[in-house]
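Deviation from plan, reported transparently: heme C complex.
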Amino acid sequence: MVLASCGVGTALGAPADTMEQRVAPCLACHGETGADLESGYAPRLHGKPAGYLFNQLVNFREGRRYNHAMNLMVAHLSDAYLWEMSEFFAEAEAPYADPVTTPAGSETLRRGRQLATEGDAALNIPSCQSCHGERLTGVEPNTPGLVGLPRFYIMAQLGAWRAGTRRAAEPDCMHDIANSLSGSDTQAVATWLASQPVPEDPSPAQEPAVEPPMECGSVNLPGYEQ
Ligand code: HEC
Ligand code: HEC
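Because the crystal trials were delayed, the predicted structure below was used instead.
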């Protein structure tokens, strides 16, 4: 894990700004593996693609994604500052919690696995694997993994895309996918994903294994340019 102490304000007697100091408030909510809060679920940040984390922080700042605490946290932070924190968390490692075995009928799990690995052409739903990676651990630089996330966080994000309280760069493929998932399909895919063990190597794939089946505006967004 890289602990960069290259904070912007350290020169010329300005207040110390080490990366540890910067991320301490974040860890109070996010922990190393994510945490259940009264205000919702704070997902893990460690090991996620830097470009994905950066895009989310910008989305919270610009109001494309809504969470009161997060919107306030990043309201006045510059792109450069957000990018440095994103790189820090992308390189940080932390163990994954064990998958939760949710009591779910075998039909729910079968349908969930089908959506994740094959999709459902009749409903216009591509497989989750085709974009989130064969191992579902994400794809560099901007696509997150789907394993190692709690079931209700996944359901909440899909619900937020449907409700318009989470948006990504246009074309927002996840908006279309979330809209094509019925309530029971949303539950099935979230239940199956949350019951999967995280592969031994949890790092995101370096590049997509297959041609993505739809265009997603966030996939090719550049990271922060110095
Ligand atoms: C008061 C609690 C709290 C604090 C403090 C906090 N977060 Fe969050 N964060 C959350 C919650 C809750 C979510 C999930 C919101 C949602 O459901 O969309 C979140 C989501 C995120 C996401 C999106 C992750 C993903 O997988 O999509 C990122 C990135 C993030 N936070 C980074 C940070 C950073 C960096 C800091 C410190 C500067 C921070 N957070 C501080 C509660 C917090
Ligand atoms: C065409 C490509 C594509 C397909 C297919 C796809 N996704 Fe996504 N997904 C993305 C991208 C890109 C993002 C990042 C969006 C952003 O930057 O907010 C994403 C983000 C997500 C997130 C947010 C994760 C987090 O940490 O907050 C969830 C949950 C999700 N997808 C679930 C699914 C599920 C379930 C399926 C299968 C039914 C699926 N996706 C299929 C491209 C895709």
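Residues 25-26, 28-30, 37, 39-40, 42-43, 45, 48, 53, 56-57, 65, 67, 69-70, 73, 85, 144, 156 surround heme C (ligand 1) (CB under 6 Å). We consider this an acceptable substitute for the interim report.
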